[in-house]
Amino acid sequence: MFLRSFKLLAATLLALLLLAGCGNGEPGPAPTGLSVTPAESSVTVSWDMTEGVEYWLFFGPSSVAPQSTTSMQRWFGLPGGNVFLKVSSPYVINGLVNGMSYSFSVNARLDGGPGGPGAAPVSVTPRISGSNWSAESGGPVGTADLHALAFGTLYVGAGSGGAIVSSPDGLTWSVVNYATSANLNAASFFGTYKLVGDAGTVLTSPDGATWTTQNSGTTKNLYAIAANGLNLNVAVGAGGTIISSLDGVSWKPATDSATSNDLYAVTYTTYNGGTWLAAGANGTLIQSSDALTWKPVVSNSSVNLRGVAYGLTSLTAGTSTFVVVGDAGTVLTSSNGIDWSAQSLPGAGRLNAVTFGSQFVAVGALGNIVTSTDGLTWTGAASATGQDLYAVVRGPNVYSAVGAAGTHLLSR
To answer: What is the pTM of this model?
Structure first.
């Protein structure tokens, strides 16, 4: 009761401050050009700014936000809302509830005077990312096919002919110069960035810009790499090749990979105290607890499996799901990594990669993108490209995907 009363008092005092101002200035006119772009759990608010004008930003759930902005006094203390003082455009608001409509307004003041009327309110609804995609054109990415993508403190992509690119935000990209002609097939981040590729190529970098070639101990093509986030990196590739490393520098082969088929994907999960799962040609699935000794898993599929992911699909129920994707729109799901069932994705085409953030996102041939919150029911997404997509990762509240001819997409 005391906390609620304190919040009401604070809101009242702030409202009085808004009305009175703290200087000899005047209210500013209602700002123009107000727009709000929704993203996952967040929005970006933009408006036309004038030099020397102070702006305050107001928002609240649309169900309780006033429609009138003649005076902004009623916008204070809205449950689930807030007021931000002395802000600049564009302004990002985080921590919003996906699926809830919010209303936003901005007002202005001159020389410390009281706030003027607000801009006409704009309402939008944040939603989990992965369903709406845009093609990004920032930076000289080039035309190489990009098969690999990882996110650490920045995005790092790589591909055919040794192409390497990086981006701080998934929007603006730049080419990284490193002398290798090997095709680079996969990327990961765990302490350092790692790229793997043809002929056993392994590259490491502390910052995504300076790269070092490491001795992998194999000349087989490496197609995928993953880390457990604690102390181990695992790369897989042609002919059932599996190698592991504590630091990305010194690598050793698996004792028994349980297959001679090509392996195209690998991931680590927290299931059963820690489980590695790799997928590959002709329906190959193998599992390991230590990345050294592997055992085969019956997938009930004969197609090439190209991507694997694991995600917490229900926080309240504590439910987690394994998802594997592959040729001909194949999607396999499992609750334990042992018993698998096929899901129907008509028209999805070949799926090359899958990841999990707030939902599963799989990408594939001809720009196909499909999403699922539970791994069972899938929905097609407009991808903004007809190019093949080869890799997808989760960044901060966004997904990024890369593909043929330097294609790079972003979903907020």
So the answer is: 0.84
